C-alpha cells in the first residue's frame, strides 16, 4: 500500500502559499498595518546580529577572487584591469548572492523555526483568540526589517570585499591599492549601486517571506519544525539564484547589433 501523500507538505503547494503570503503582506503594507516595535527588533536580528559572518565570508571571498583573477591578468600584462574584473564580477554578482545566502541561512531559518514552533504549539491559534492577526504581528515586521537591512548588509559586504581584494592584490601581486581601487572605480557605474540596492531589497523580501511561509505551513512536531527551517533555506537559495538570473538578463543583457 502506498503511503498517503500529504498535499500540505508538498513543495509546490508551499511555494504557492508563499506567493499568497507575499500578496497578503503587500495588502497589509498598503493598509499601514504593522507593529513598529517588532520591526526594530527584527532589524537588529537581520543586521547587527548577522554582520560578523557576512563580513568574514565576503572578506575572504574578495581575497580569493582577486588571487584567482589577478594570476591570469598579470600573466597577460593587464595589471590595471584587476580591479575592474573584480568590480564587474564580485561587486555586481558574487557579493550580493553570498550576503543573501548567509542571511537566508541564519535569519530565514530562524524565522521558519520560530514561527513553525509557534504553529505546532498552537501559539498562533492563541493569537487568533486574542484577535491579533498573525500576519500583521509575525510576518509583516519581519519582511520590512529584512528588506531594509539586506541592502545595508550588502554595502558593508562589498566594502569589506574590496578591502580584502586590495590587500590580496598588494600582498601577492605587488599591485598597489591605488591602482586596484582606481580600476574598481572606473568600471563600477553609479547605476550599479542602484542595482545592488534593488537586489538587496528583493532578496530581503524573499528571505523573510519564504521563511515565514514555511513556518506558517508547518504541521506535526519538533522534527517537522527542523525540516521546515532546512527546506526554507534551500528554497530561498534556489529563489535567489533564479531572481539574480532574471535581473541579469533584464538589467545587463545588451542587444546584438
From TrEMBL:
| Major location category of this protein | membrane
Q: Where in the cell is it found?
A: Membrane
Which InterPro entries has this protein been placed in?
A: ABC_MlaE_roteobac, Permease_MalE
Q: What is this protein called?
A: Transporter
Q: Which Pfam families match?
A: MlaE
One Gene Ontology cellular component term attached to this UniProt record is: ATP-binding cassette (ABC) transporter complex
Membrane topology, as annotated: Multi-pass membrane protein
- TM ranges are 12-29, 152-176, 196-217, 229-252
What keywords are assigned to this protein? Membrane, Transmembrane, Transmembrane helix, Transport
Which molecular-function annotations from GO does this UniProt entry contain? phospholipid transporter activity
The record's annotation in NCBIfam families points to: MlaE family lipid ABC transporter permease subunit
Per the UniProt record, the source organism is Nostoc minutum NIES-26
The entry's family comment says:
Belongs to the MlaE permease family.
Upper classification of the source organism reads:
Bacteria, Bacillati, Cyanobacteriota, Cyanophyceae, Nostocales
